Amino acid sequence: MQYTIRYGTAQAVVTSRGAELISFQKDGQEYVWTGDPTYWSGHNPILFPAVCRAKNNVLVFDGVAYPFEKHGFARKSEFALAAQGEDFVSLVLCDNEQTRSVFPFHFKLTVTHRVTQDSFITNYRVDNLDEREMSFLIGGHTGILLDFGGCRSIEGWQLKFEQIEHADVYYGDENLFIQRHLKYADILNGNDTVALTCQTFDRDALMIEGLKSKWVRLISPSGKGVEMDFGDFPVLGVWTPPKQDAPFVCLEPWHGMPSLADESGEMRERPHAIVLGAGESKELSYRLRVL
């Protein structure tokens, strides 16, 4: 099922599979990646209850190991309609027998997409419906089509942050695990701008931790761009397929990171894991705005 939401000359399309916003247009211009499987079949998936790959393809909850696939199950799950208006739609996923086979908790994940005059805003709310603590990761994976900038190549594009930064920028090892010594020492070392090239992504995604900024702009050589306000997400991923010069780049607000190479596998020990007590909830939002 697909839902179209509008505000003025902006509109978005959201699908019930994965509660994924698969299109955002402003004045007829598309900004979300089309999902061409030549490069990547996704558009803007929701990463829950894990981000990236789990060590040994398992997650451990209270000492019990469960099989897990990269980025979790929400992106492939069918969500139910919770509420809809002209400019917003809310979709919900509750635990079921299939989810409990890999994530042994009672939960509710509500995803709300809203459009404004020049933006879309995505809000995640996770409710712990269990009688015990629940740990998880969550994040976005917004693919941004580069055509609007008049240049289909990533060459010449820039990331410009709100503030001068000294944040740590990691890349994963061959399994996309985090080893704390694998860092780009010179990318964000006292500046607010990163010049992007195809070679920037030879080692796959950039994973930026410890930002002071709350927003980043992706700016084309022509000066056109978008701004992502990632709010309270502590990590920003930036990705395009390595060595392909694909016509899109992803900005990914994460509350979590890939597995540490030397971790135990216990979810609560993963970087930036969220732990909710019984009956507690957590909300996080991000916004993508056309400049």
Oligomer classification: single chain
* C-alpha end-to-end distance: 30 Å
- Helical amount: under 10%
Outline the biggest β-sheet.
Answer: 9 strands, antiparallel
Q: H/E series, N to C?
A: EEEEEEEEHEEEEEEEEEEEEEEE
Principal-axis shape:
globular
The low-pLDDT segments are: none
Beta strand count: 23
Please identify the structural class as seen in this structure.
mainly beta
CATH class: Mainly Beta
* Average of per-residue pLDDT values: 93
Record the SSE blueprint.
Elements (H helix, E strand, L loop, with lengths): L1 E6 L2 E6 L4 E7 L2 E2 L27 E4 L2 E4 L12 E5 L3 E7 L2 H4 L6 E9 L3 E10 L5 E3 L1 E2 L2 E4 L12 E8 L2 E3 L20 E5 L10 E4 L5 E5 L5 E5 L5 E5 L8 E8 L18 E3 L4 E10 L1
Antiparallel strand pairs: 1-2, 2-3, 3-4, 5-6, 7-8, 8-9, 9-10, 10-23, 11-22, 12-21, 13-21, 14-16, 14-18, 15-17, 17-20, 18-19, 19-23, 20-21
